[in-house]
Amino acid sequence: MQASWEIFCSVVDNYGDAGVTWRLARQLAAEHGLRVRLWIDDPAALVRLCPEVDASASRQWQAGVEICRWPADWQPVEPADVVIEAFACQLPEAHVVAMANCGRRVLWLNLEYLSAEDWVGGCHGLPSLQPEGLQKFFFFPGFAENTGGLLREHGLIERRRAFQADAAARAGFLQSLGVQARPGERLVSLFAYENAALPGWLDALVQHTSPTLLLVPEGRILGDLQRWLDMPALAVGAQAQRGALRIQVLPFVRQDDYDRLLWCCDFNVVRGEDSFLRAQWAGRPLLWQIYPQAEGAHWDKLEAFLALYLEGLSPSAADALQALWRAWNAGEEMGAAWTALQDEWPELCAHAERWCARQAARPDLAAALVQFYTDWL
Fold this sequence. Notes:
Layout: E1 4-9, H1 16-32, E2 35-40, H2 44-47, E3 59-62, E4 65-69, E5 82-86, H3 93-101, E6 107-111, H4 119-123, E7 127-129, E8 135-139, H5 156-164, H6 167-176, E9 186-190, H7 198-207, E10 212-217, H8 222-229, E11 239-242, E12 245-250, H9 255-264, E13 267-271, H10 274-281, E14 286-289, H11 298-309, H12 315-330, H13 335-342, H14 345-360, H15 365-376
Parallel strand pairs: 1-2, 1-5, 2-4, 5-6, 6-8, 9-10, 9-13, 10-12, 13-14
Antiparallel strand pairs: 3-4, 7-8, 11-12
Helix pairs in contact: 1-15, 5-9, 7-13, 12-13
């Protein structure tokens, strides 16, 4: 019988934590044939990612995964063979006791946030002694060989490349969202937190010599966009034109459709962790808004990723991309950085595809987790 796995997720960043754990749970079930249970304290966060989810159900099955509401009043259940606490969420104390007393070995993993920082490799896979005599192992996703790899489904890159090579498929998908791209438009997606840098960037797009179609899925950035447009409200389907910039608000779509949106675009602005990684698999230049942390701790993570990602770029291209990322995350004026980036566009496009291929050549996160369990047995 295949091992049973359970993943605990406490929703912090709207869809980010839920998005990562839902992707991982689906992949473990679909590609590795595992029995997977996802505990989530806010099932409503999954509804937009998977509309079939019933937010009111305490227990349900979707895509081969058992989804359970993680109740504040925990009721005892039999622990799985592998227990993953995602992003340092605190397991119910009674469940930890059950893990220690169930009469078999249980692998306890703390799945950490994605980071490119140097120290990650040294901490990946390390055990930590816990109460009840259990060991908890730290599992770090990452971009280097000594980490747990990145979340990537089997055949993802091949599907993406085939889709991008099929103009009819791209046009058909965009039409399903109500989008009709015009000849010569550069397609840009924008999924972001609130950002004081937005007006300056939009002003630069308005004045650019070539047209841009900015596709904005529902999200937190809509308030800033609405103020810049000076419009009373922005709903799905809303469109506006300012100079060379055309803007269209899109619905929040399920994960597979968001992937296709990224694949359709020439440039993707993303946030947090899940969309950040999916934009890398799109093989297109990107701009990342990292989740802000207290006392500016997120800047070390941002700079660590840039140090890796910029390898292989010419000095001028590296400087341009770095300036754009720093300005965006600092909420500073974006116009000059965006203008400077245009001269480096062909190199940045080729580099994005090379980076994707390099990362895709490594074992993916789900496979690495399964291998870790096999080695632990």
